[in-house]
Amino acid sequence: MKRLALLLAAMGVISVGAMAEGEKLEVTNFGQNIEIENTSGAKQGDIGDTWFFNNLGMTYGDWTFSIVGGKMWELDSVEGVETTNSRVQMSAVRNYGNYYLGAKTRFQQDYDRYHLLAGWNYGDFYGDYDVWYQSQQGKEGADPDSLRMEIFPIGVKFGDYRVAWFIEGWKANGNLNAGQQESYITHQLRFYAPLYTGEKFSLSTEYRLSLTEDKKYKEKTEAYTEFRDFGRHRLYLRSNYAISESLSVFLNYGYQVSDYKSVNGDGANTHSEKYWGDVEFGWNYKF
After folding, report:
1. From CA 20, how far away is CA 155, in angstroms rounded?
2. What does the alpha-carbon distance between residue 213 and residue 229 come to, in Å, rounded to a whole number?
3. Which residues, 6+ apart, have CB-to-CB distance to 28 below 8 Å?
4. How far does Cα 117 stand from its chain's mean position?
5. pTM here?
6. Going by C-beta distance under 8 Å and a sequence separation of 6 or more, which residues neighbour residue 165?
7. Strand segments (E) across the chain
8. 8: Cβ–Cβ under 8 A, 6 or more apart, which residues?
9. Residue 19, SS3?
10. How far is CA 229 from CA 33, 186, 236, in A?
11. Residues whose CB is less than 8 angstroms from the CB of residue 104 and which lie 6 or more positions away in sequence, other chains included
């Protein structure tokens, strides 16, 4: 742990002055999970894209750190297993009471990301902001670099219930070829609610209503799809079972339906990728 603290200090994440105060770097949790995602009509095998993640959490005074390592496979009942991607992700966040600031990096085979994180919480209102630069890794002709965001401008709590406005968007950086996508933005409303809370078992839900979607392309002549206004719906069920005070297991399921329209003509396939499903299960140990 001392070596890790020195490494973080050398990276500028923790100041030497803070280390001199005798604060201790502590592991807060460790867990593993498997996530299987399948989209109708997409090339991902009939079982789906499957991630296996290892998750480590730590604290140091007002700092919170996380390290995630993952590997991805494409699973097909006939073709078998194909390794398609891997991920290393690290984040450092400092809490200032009613707000936080932080940074995150993510490295995959197809891109690198460099994130700035921020958030605030005052009474029953909150907001979260994740803005990053995405550097594409791959052969010539791949998608250009881009500036991206996933933000909650504002959310409201009603006891154990929450509702939040969510925006996801990106803009390409660099020269584009004809037909390449220049930008993307979508708006959502997200609703969160507990369904059951027992001594060991809990069940909650999340509903995402997508309001609008807008794609921009450079000199694109072919038709393409966007979902219709208010035309995408996603529902999650999340369950957790506490085996002990420290060890818990979880199972989550998500399902999405999209109603697409053809833009820039009538030739786009509005039936492919209409349905999406996601299953996630794993365990977590709190120290």
Report:
1. 38
2. 7
3. 57, 58, 59, 286, 287
4. 13
5. 0.90
6. 152, 153, 154, 155, 187, 188, 189, 190
7. 26-39, 48-60, 63-76, 80-95, 99-108, 111-122, 125-136, 145-158, 161-173, 181-197, 201-217, 224-242, 247-263, 275-286
8. 14, 25, 60, 65, 92
9. helix
10. 34, 10, 21
11. 89, 90, 91, 92, 113, 115, 117, 130, 132
Q: Which one-letter amino acid corresponds to residue 209?
A: L
Q: Does residue 32 carry a pLDDT above 90?
A: yes
pLDDT band of residue 86 (cuts 50, 70, 90) is very high
- The values of phi and psi at residue 141, to 5°, are 95, 0
Structure tokens at 110: 């197809």
Tokens of 285: 């140990």
Token output for 42: 């997409």
pLDDT at residue number 139: 65
Rg (CA), the chain: 21
User: In angstroms, rounded to a whole number, what is the distance separating the alpha carbons of residues 49 and 83?
Assistant: 10
Q: How far is CA 243 from CA 56, 58, 147, 201, 248, in A?
A: 19, 22, 42, 9, 5
Phi, psi of 10 (to 5 degrees): -65, -30
Q: Grade residue 151 by pLDDT with cuts at 50, 70 and 90.
A: very high
Q: Residue 217's beta-bridge partner residues? A: 181
Q: What is the DSSP letter of 138?
A: S
What pLDDT band is residue 3 in, cutting at 50, 70 and 90?
very low
Q: Which two structure tokens, joined as six digits, stand for 158?
A: 């009603």
Residue 105 has pLDDT above 70, yes or no: yes
Residue 198 is given by DSSP the state -
Q: Scan for tokens 């809990």, then name that residue.
A: 202
CA distance 62 to 100: 10
